[in-house]
């Protein structure tokens, strides 16, 4: 692929009509911030209508560790600052997820490493997912005291059911890549050393097919997901997050987490 644009946090590359958007905060586990999400949103706008397929991936050993806990805690200088930052974070993620679901081409999540917190939404919003066998998924909400975001309640129950989703969130279980495949959360596994070739093969298999069928199927399935639209369900997550993040208990949990993992991502990237 040819790199066509590089920001400090998102790399945009293109091979023919396939665009790859790569989260580029490897030193922070590709954790999410309002700035990164704004850049990703702009990249998706620039991509819409110009690509046969869009691939989402991460730089380094981690796909994404979710919201940057250190950044959230650092904006707790006042109730207003914490509210504004958290609103921009979850609202920005929601905007990206809705953009992904609205793209007029297939979206592939190339999950090269661990996925924690709200970054699961980037995978759930994709049409197809390829995951490295060494990767895993973990909520971390029960540990941190955050309300689930990124589609954990808005998208995941449609995949695995409400009861299984609730159980996973309550016990903060770590799900391996093999388990994720069995649950139907991903479409294909690959050994890390063969990951890029497996991604190329997936794109090759898609090429002769009519992409509009994938897009139309996505829209029809989203319409059948329930009486409330996805935007409303994601907004309910945002509102719950804003309430939960302001609790003293959540602040204490963030402090404990950051004492153990000062870089905010160290826990997530180690099995």
Please, could you describe this protein's structure?
By secondary structure, this protein is an alpha/beta fold. The chain has twelve helices and ten strands. The strands form two sheets. The protein has a seven-stranded mixed sheet with strand order 1-2-3-4-5-7-10, sandwiched between helices. Strands 6-8-9 form a three-stranded mixed sheet. Helix 1 (34-47) packs parallel to helix 3 (79-102) and helix 3 (79-102) runs antiparallel to helix 11 (230-245). Residues 264-271 have low confidence and may be disordered.
Number of helices: 12
Residue-averaged pLDDT, rounded? 92
What is the strand tally? Answer: 10
Rg computed from alpha carbons, rounded to a whole number of angstroms: 17 Å
Tell me, what's the shape?
globular
Q: Which key phrases capture this entry?
A:
271 residues, alpha/beta, 7-stranded mixed beta sheet, 48% helix, 16% strand
Topology of this structure?
Blueprint: E1 2-6, E2 10-15, E3 18-23, H1 34-47, E4 53-58, H2 69-74, H3 79-102, E5 107-111, E6 115-116, H4 120-124, E7 128-132, E8 136-138, H5 141-144, H6 156-160, H7 162-171, E9 175-176, H8 177-183, E10 188-190, H9 195-206, H10 211-223, H11 230-245, H12 248-260
Parallel strand pairs: 3-4, 4-5, 5-7, 6-8, 7-10
Antiparallel strand pairs: 1-2, 2-3, 8-9
Helix pairs in contact: 1-3, 3-11
């Amino acid at each position: 692929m040819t790199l066509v644009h590089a920001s400090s946090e998102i790399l945009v590359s293109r091979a023919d009509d396939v665009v790859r958007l790569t989260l580029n905060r490897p030193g922070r586990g590709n954790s999410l911030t309002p700035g990164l999400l704004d850049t990703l949103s702009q990249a998706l706008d620039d991509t819409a209508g110009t690509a046969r397929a869009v691939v989402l991936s991460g730089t380094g050993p981690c796909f994404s560790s979710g919201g940057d806990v250190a950044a959230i805690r650092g904006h707790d200088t006042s109730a207003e600052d914490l509210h504004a930052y958290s609103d921009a974070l979850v609202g920005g993620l929601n905007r990206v997820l809705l953009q992904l679901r609205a793209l007029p081409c297939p979206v592939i999540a190339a999950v090269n490493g661990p996925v924690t917190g709200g970054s699961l939404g980037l995978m759930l919003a994709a049409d197809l997912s390829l995951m490295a066998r060494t990767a895993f998924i973990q909520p971390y909400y029960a540990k941190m005291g955050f309300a689930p975001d990124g589609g954990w309640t808005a998208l995941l129950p449609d995949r695995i059911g409400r009861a299984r989703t609730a159980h996973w969130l309550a016990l903060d279980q770590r799900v391996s890549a093999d388990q994720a495949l069995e649950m139907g959360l991903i479409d294909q596994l690959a050994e890390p050393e063969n990951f890029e070739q497996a991604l190329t093969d997936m794109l090759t298999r898609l090429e002769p097919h009519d992409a509009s069928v994938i897009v139309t199927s996505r829209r029809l399935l989203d319409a059948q997901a329930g009486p409330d639209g996805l935007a409303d369900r994601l907004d309910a997550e945002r509102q719950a997050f804003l309430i939960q993040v302001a609790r003293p208990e959540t602040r204490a949990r963030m402090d404990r987490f950051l004492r153990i993992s000062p870089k905010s991502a160290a826990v997530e990237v180690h099995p």
